[in-house]
Amino acid sequence: MNRKIRVMALAAATLLASAAASAATPGATNALPVGRCVNMGNHLEPPQEGAWGRAIADDDFAIIAKAGFATIRLPVRWSGHLDAAGRIDPAFLQRVQRVVGLARAAGLNVILNDHNFDALMSAPEANRDKLAAIWRQVAKAFADSPRDHVWFEIANEPHDKLTNANLVATLSPALAAIRESNPDRPVIVGGEFWSGVSSLATLQLPEDPHLVPTFHYYEPFDFTHQGATWVEPVRPLGRVYGSEADKAMLEADVAKVRAFIARTGKTPLLGEFGAIDLAPLAQRVAYAKAVRTAFDAVGVATCSWAYTNTFPLYDSKAKQWLPGMLEAVGAGQ
């Protein structure tokens, strides 16, 4: 074989190897096809299902899908269902699997998270191995779920001692545990201060091509949480939304998301937004529409908080969506 032929053969072999490698290695996940999304809030993250409102009903997901939603986010308090050895209660795991199965049967995507792991927030280093053990079990249980429709979120709303400074070190063992059985499933990660939009400025992600950043939006807080008794101090009722200052705040916060996208090339998910039902319905609707349309403009998918138990969009007793709310959150669009 002469030199020219050898060079051509080597080039061809290199191209074939490159093509094979590309076929074996999926591209990076830069955004998720979430569409319109609603949180199943206060269902599986209380100490027991039903403690903070009604339990999930089998027909809930057909109702949600019919309304035009494409995805549910399912908050789960895994840490409240562990035995002394760190094993998830099999009955609870089966319940979550059934709920995910019901959602998938209705054609919905599912974001499955770890919610209300309070010990992780107050002592991240001491609890990161427990978080990893939780996700090793959860990931294995859902390993056969379709990658394109079921996604994991490692830790809801880092706060207290879990900050952007120690986030990577704290979450990396859990991510490694997930990757043992789910090598390329998209995994969602949010930043410090309850994943507020300002956390994006310093958010760094572990080295993994299939991570998707997230943030939550409840600004202005004295509007969205007016009268909430779990907030100290309790914000007074009567705060209205829509002033020029409110509009300027939203515009500035959208700019923070634009800056994050420009810095990272990744489009974050707005995993929670909404306003308490102690505010007048018309105000809640106006707020939801303003936030949703503002983040629509930068290509950010939005996930409303929540379906029926808290900050509700749906009235379970009347069996109807609150007037104006579906349009406000963009369902069916």
Characterization of this structure:
The chain is an alpha/beta fold and 333 residues long. The protein has a single domain, classed as Glycosidases (TIM Barrel, Alpha-Beta Barrel). The chain has helices spanning 3-24, 60-66, 90-105, 118-122, 124-141, 167-181, 192-195, 221-224, 244-264, 281-296, 325-329; strands at 37-39, 71-74, 109-113, 150-153, 187-190, 211-217, 269-273, 302-304, 314-315, 320-321. Strands 1-2-3-4-5-6-7-8 form an eight-stranded parallel β-barrel. Strands 9-10 form a two-stranded antiparallel sheet. Helix 5 packs parallel to helix 6 (167-181). The protein is globular. It starts with a helix and ends with a helix.
CATH classification, class level: Alpha Beta
The radius of gyration over CA amounts to 21 Å
Share of helix, binned: 25-40%
- Largest sheet, strands/sense/barrel: 8 strands, parallel, barrel
Structural class call reads alpha/beta
Mean pLDDT across every amino acid position: 92
Task: Give the strand tally.
Answer: 10
Report the uncertain regions: 1-25
Question: Distance between the terminal alpha carbons, to the nearest Å?
Answer: 63 Å
For the biggest β-sheet, the strand order reads 1-2-3-4-5-6-7-8
Individual helix count:
11
Considering the protein shown, what is the CATH homologous superfamily?
A: Glycosidases
